Amino acid sequence: MGGDGGDNARHFGPMFNKDLGQHILINPLVSQGIVDKARLKQTDTVLEVGPGTGNLTVKILEQAKKVIACEADARLAAELTKRVQGGPFQYKLEILHGDVMKRDLPFFDVCISNTPYQISSPLTFKLLFHRPIFRCAVLMFQREFAMRLVARPGDALYGRLAVNCQLYSKVSHVMKVGKNNFKPPPNVESDVVKIEPLNPPPPIDFNEWDGLVRIAFSRKNKTLAANFKSTATMEMLEKNYKTYCATNDMMVEDDFDIKGKVLGVLASAGFTETRAAKMDIDDFMKLLVAFHDANIHFC
């Protein structure tokens, strides 16, 4: 992954597994820039996802107390082990071999990753739900995914991904990284983002939150009223309402009308004509509370 091993990367090149999203970062300046943005302390334990041949790893090892590197490819894990063997970093590096998405994450202070692009979204949320909360993550992503993460209300790429990620963290753009900084070069440009989890996290049921956000962004440039009027949405909300009433020993009103109830919540909260593409985190929170006050739930 990181930067100063051009010969190493050339030697290892034919073995790269594109199915695993292996694109080794070979520019030492980019590697150093990523490490600098993490603002590592000498006491830090760093989780690195997808270390590859270790170009980025060795730069992290220079500054951190310990690196736990999670690598899915046994050949790259062996290469990384060989690279630090007998040197000053040997006992500061722990290698976990296997799929990071199929294991519990260890304790860490900072995560740094040249992320295999096919796990970008699941890894992001695995990190955000990890406890105890870590200080920050500096992550390399495919450009479009990175731009979707950092998008703000009104931006073309603003959507469910941005809202869900920004509910739990401050997300900022760090740098663009051209495809020629990798070996083999990927088909797309890349960007680095920094994620700083909110501590404490908001006391919100994520499944409820995501249920609301999913409906709101089903057609993000339509009004919320238009999106909520869909038959499938109304049927789901009616079922949830009746389940909630039954669970809490509440009677369903004789004149109960889910459509009227839902549209009434939107109107009273002032969101009938609002479009999700222009709503911020506070808007979604306000709307979720309004629905819950009316005993309407999303999961």
Automatic annotation (TrEMBL):
State the reactions this protein catalyses: adenosine(1779)/adenosine(1780) in 18S rRNA + 4 S-adenosyl-L-methionine = N(6)-dimethyladenosine(1779)/N(6)-dimethyladenosine(1780) in 18S rRNA + 4 S-adenosyl-L-homocysteine + 4 H(+)
Q: Name the job this protein performs.
A: Specifically dimethylates two adjacent adenosines in the loop of a conserved hairpin near the 3'-end of 18S rRNA in the 40S particle.
Q: Pfam families per the record?
A: RrnaAD
Q: Which CDD domains match?
A: AdoMet_MTases
Entry superkingdom: Eukaryota
Full protein name: rRNA adenine N(6)-methyltransferase
This chain's source organism reads: Linderina pennispora
This enzyme's EC code(s): 2.1.1.-
Q: What class of enzyme is it?
A: transferase
Where S-adenosyl-L-methionine binds, per the record, is at H23, L25, G50, E71, D99, N114
Q: Which family does it belong to?
A: Belongs to the class I-like SAM-binding methyltransferase superfamily. rRNA adenine N(6)-methyltransferase family.
**Protein's UniProt keywords contain RNA-binding:** yes
Listed A to Z, the keywords are: Methyltransferase, RNA-binding, rRNA processing, S-adenosyl-L-methionine, Transferase
The protein's matches in SMART domains, at most eight in alphabetical order, are given as: rADc (SM00650)
One MF term from GO for this chain?
18S rRNA (adenine(1779)-N(6)/adenine(1780)-N(6))-dimethyltransferase activity
Domain Ribosomal RNA adenine methylase transferase N-terminal: from-to ranges: 30-199
Which InterPro entries does the record associate with it? KsgA/Erm (IPR001737), rRNA_Ade_Mease_Trfase_CS (IPR020596), rRNA_Ade_methylase_Trfase_N (IPR020598), rRNA_adenine_dimethylase (IPR011530), SAM-dependent_MTases_sf (IPR029063)
